[in-house]
Structure prediction request, 423 residues.
Amino acid sequence: MGRSQELRGGPPPKDPEVFGPNADDTGCGILHVDMDAFFVSVELRRRPELRGRPVIVGGAGPRGVVSSASYEARRYGVRSAMPMSKARRLCPKAICLPPDFAAYTEASHAVMEIFREVTPLVEPLSLDEAFLDVTGAQRRLGRPAAIAALIRSRVAAEQQITCSVGVASTMFVAKLASTRAKPDGMAVVPADRVLEFLHPLPVAALWGVGERSAEVLGRLGLRTIGDVARTPVATLRAALGKAAAEHLHDLAWGRDPRQVNPDPVDKSIGTEVTFDTDVADHEVIRRTLLQLAGTTATRLRRAGMMGRTVGIKVRFADFRTISRSRTLMSSTDVTREIFRTAWELFTALGTRERIRLLGVRVEGLLPADAGVWQPHLWEPRYGWREAERAVDAALERFGAGVIRPASLITRRSPDKKRGVGHT
DNA sequence: TCTGGGGTCCTCAAACTC
DNA sequence: TCTGGAGTTTGAGGACCC
Prediction:
């Protein structure tokens, strides 16, 4: 969940007069709402006795990372995406909780529902943040800053979660503004003061600049967004490529043509797993790929989508990561077909190396009812697809785990992270 | 220190098509 | 029929986002 505040927004030069809640919000129809330490906040609702204490939500296994940290834990240097082992070292007193995505998803739906009562133009970015275009809601609900305040108070009152809101004329600036407002605050960037807001910020605050690009820009002597703005696009292009150069130069001048899109379509669906300990046994790998294919296929069917390209991702013990993919004759959402392709892609690698992570992904998605699915000539009218749909229905009714491929049935309860199917 | 899992988008090269 | 070039598709890899 997000990069650290230092990297993202730099030291926030808080000036309530200029970028505070009372700044001029004329023409600032875009809101970016970001929940504060969302996963932790959801946990604290049901465990209020933990309030005020350092709390970390993260993977419990030996290779888990921090998903969310309370502000008390952040004081010790704990950050999201940090290995849990390091987080525990930095803050031994922290209470560490395993993630409960079902609870976070439910809380997220409730919050998004509040947003949709304000405007239909809501674009969720993840479970804990969303863009809202409130341009059309102003006659009904008042100025953008007033709408932002309304949202903040409703989320706090109805969900017992604080959030921060950025109010601006573009999505990019609204996002930076919400970062500056954290925690539990609001920032307004007046349309005529965007450059004043943007240019002192570090280059890493630009959307699309991560560690690598920041390093490249640093070698050019570019430290702030203002530096990027004043650099000829041709120079940026030579360093970063055409698309990135033009994109960053535009953002640096406050130009962001994107509009809030309430119906973004999924382009791929996939599942991956990191083993607790590296695995070289091909039988374990085969079973893991079958399980990953099954999960992916189930998610595809649940989403009503099919895809034509099947890909695998393999991360070796030394963290080298490769991917392989193959485009099929027609789209699929069938476990057997996805697994068969994934296994063929894997065996074609001819590797015996120890593996840390395996992933299966299906790309090139189309709605399943788009009529693009073509059964093969030799495929029976009612085949695996129908069988798997029946399994979906049974799982829906009787719960996860009641049905699974015979090759995944083990005497022990399955634990994919230890390698599927040790018997 | 030792790096999750879900994704998107871009670049580049090779293969393919016209 | 062969060939070169342009455009498109595919596949791999990497950077980045939350």
The radius of gyration of chain A is 24 Å. Confidence is low (pLDDT under 50) at residues 1-14, 412-423 of chain A.
